[in-house]
């Protein structure tokens, strides 16, 4: 979702995903529901198994506020993030695949159509290596991700190492997600997960705050610990549920320079996510 995120392999290994997220109200009086749809289409280009990736991801956030913050919150009730993915997967050498994804993004409350400030540009470049047939299968993803919504004008590292070290156990270490999985039966798995989530969205009609500062952006960043269950219909098709709690969380209003102007939420939240996906891993 938005800020962290966060195309195929570099940002997500999903070809298709339908997902619902519920963050119940906490002590700050804020609750959030997110509806997510993702579709990526890999198009084979040649016999070398090079692929063109085209895709779309849409997130709608419905946010409720039970507290009076001293300003009009109507601009912040419904938020949208739309990503368009365009990229390539190609054989880098005998062991490594290269994945490059360019992701134009619209992130806004869209109260007045589409404006220039709603547009952001993200990009990811990774090298991907795996051996899924080994007794102790593994996968390595190493790369850089530039996300214009983080406010950092430099590419950030993207790292993931997966290891199936036992027929019933595996782990993934990396950024933005790590987990430890147990497979009690062929179609079932249980995991402990630690991951980053969040968003950064333009507010089209600026909000005047009680101290006369102007808010033109809203953001949320969260570090979430969760326990999850997954049922595999097939090797690639899965239903899943995650239930957890944020360890660190900050929801803020920001100005045009991305400076903090109002703290909305820094209290822990429960985190409930469920959905269906088709993945390449």
Description:
- The protein has strands spanning 14-23, 30-44, 51-65, 78-91, 97-108, 119-131, 138-147, 156-166, 169-175, 177-185, 188-208, 214-232, 237-254, 260-265, 270-279.
- By secondary structure, the protein is an all-beta fold.
- The chain has a 14-stranded antiparallel β-barrel with strand order 1-2-3-4-5-6-7-8-9-10-11-12-13-15.
- Strand 13 (237-254) and strand 14 form a beta hairpin.
- Residues 1-11 have low confidence and may be disordered.
Keywords for this entry:
single chain; 281 residues; mainly beta; 14-stranded antiparallel β-barrel; 0% helix; disordered N terminus
Tally the beta strands. 15
Percentage of residues in strands: over 45%
The number of helical elements comes to 0
Order of helices and strands: EEEEEEEEEEEEEEE
Output the structural class: mainly beta
Low-confidence segments, given as residue ranges, are 1-11
Q: What radius of gyration results from the CA coordinates? A: 19 Å
Largest sheet, if any? 14 strands, antiparallel, barrel
Overall average pLDDT: 90
Helix content: under 10%
Inertia-based shape = globular
Side by side, the strands of the main sheet go: 1-2-3-4-5-6-7-8-9-10-11-12-13-15
N-to-C terminal Cα separation, in Å? 20 Å
